Amino acid sequence: MKLYAPWERAFRKVSTPFEHFLHAQTTTGIILMFMTVLALILANSPLTADYAHFFHTKINLDVGSWQLSHTIHHWINDGLMAIFFFIIGLEIKREILVGELSNIKVAMLPILAAIGGMLIPALIFLSINAGSPGAVGWGIPMATDIAFAISALVLLGKRVPHSLVTFLVALAIVDDLGAVMVIALFYTEQIHMLPLALAGASFLIMVAFNRFGIHMILPYFIVGLFMWFFMLESGVHATIAGVIAALAIPSKPKRVPGDFRQDAKILLDEFDKEPIDEKEGMSEKQKAILLKLQSNIDDIGTPASRLESDLHLPVALIVIPLFALANAGIAIDFSSIGTTIMTPVSMGIIFGLILGKVLGIFGVAWLAIKLKVASLPHGSNMNQIFGVAFLGGIGFTMSIFVADLAFVGSPDLIFQAKVGILAASLFAGLFGYFWLRFVAKSAY
Question: In terms of domains, do 327 and 434 share one?
């Protein structure tokens, strides 16, 4: 029996891919919150030296004279996070093929709102940090943490219409796509062409597997692992390999549902005709029929949907919590926290994630609706869009990830960025939640 966390019990009766997606994001959000608090406690306790030493411990992979050596922190950010980005890639692909982004009329509002929610925060950050070393961090306030944002909406339950959750999911998916493009194009210091070409060749091999109808996961996993390594060596951030690999995973079933129904009926009829073995409960023939039925079930599913479903739980329980534990722990000197927040980097992120996201998401959505370019999600209103715009200011996971890339080798700027990210995400999340719970509740 599949068990859900207590906060997910309300969803037990639903089984669509979208609801399973919400289950995973809610789980991730709650665990992420816990691990963030734990990281902050460890970083500000007598264990702070041990905490830092652990994540700076090196792990080596040796094959003959060849060696790959990185710290635990690096393995998490470049290795495990590739799985997180693989999930993002699968989600983007699903939304474009069959989700909210497959219908351009429905998708127009979240697409435009997401673009506004990326550009305006970046411009605000640049206006505050222009001409300073911190200007390179303009991509930090562009991101929205999908897990935290969706968790806040799910916790509101029936106080928000389902269409608003769908709008936020579509917006966050577009936002993730934008963040991936920014990382790939602007946060790559040096490109080594041979490894990059080998990564491209690996991707083409995976595409060939798809075209030849290979639905087994293992070949994609092996080639994808090589692609990740080549991407790591190329200078382009290795996590991009996760997104690219997701695009090659088959999204079409081997068999159509109509054929499955007919074959399943024949198999079940054969199953019923077999005598029941009193000791085993089923005859060997019945066991073989069930295996065949399971094979047919797999054939009407797709590798992309299976991987997305199977990987959500380990990503929620292992990858994202480890990332938060490794990256969210900042030693806070409360006597100087005011000075840190007032630095251009922190202020750029705070104003970008709060003011920029609201102006970008809400402002562009309002303009698009007024110009009749897009329409409001069914059953919602601009009051609710305003609250969702604040939830879009929860940057956390992706913002911290971009900060580490933007300010590599500059611990002071990374510290300032993380303080700004935590402060802005906390304010945006609480304000958005309470706005939707108390201020906007009369609208629905």
Answer: yes
Q: Is 364 within the bounds of a domain?
A: yes
pLDDT range class, residue 5, cuts 50, 70, 90? very low
Residue 228 is assigned to a structural domain of this protein: no
Check: CB of residue 65 under 8 Å from CB of residue 135: no
Please indicate, yes or no, whether residues 362 and 378 belong to a single structural domain of this protein.
Answer: yes
Distance CA 427, CA 284 (A): 61
Q: Do residues 323 and 416 share a domain?
A: yes
Summarised one tens digit per residue, pLDDT across range 168-193 is 888 888 888 888 889 888 887 778 88
Looking at residue 136, the DSSP 8-state letter turns out to be G
291 with 352, same domain: the answer is no
* The two structure tokens encoding residue 69: 């050596």
Give the predicted TM-score (pTM) of the model: 0.78
Answer yes or no: is 221 within a domain.
Answer: no
Residue 195 falls inside a structural domain: no
Q: Which DSSP string do the residues of 54-107 spell out, in sequence order?
A: HHT-EEEEEETTEEEEEEHHHIIIIIIHHHHHHHHHHHHHHHHHTSGGGSHHHH
Mean pLDDT computed over every residue of the chain: 83
Q: From residue 368, give the alpha-carbon distance in Å to each of 11, 80, 113, 371.
A: 33, 39, 9, 5
Query: Is the predicted pLDDT of residue 416 greater than 80, yes or no?
Result: yes
The CA-based diameter of the chain, rounded to the nearest angstrom, is 82
Backbone angles phi, psi at 81, to 5 degrees: -70, -15
Q: Which of 4, 106, 74, 68 is nearest to 408 (CA)?
A: 74
356 and 290 in one domain? no
279-298 confidence digits (pLDDT tens): 666 766 777 777 777 766 66
**Number of domains present in the structure of the chain:** 2
Segments forming the whole domain that contains residue 291: 257-297
Indicate the pLDDT class of residue 253, thresholds 50, 70 and 90: confident
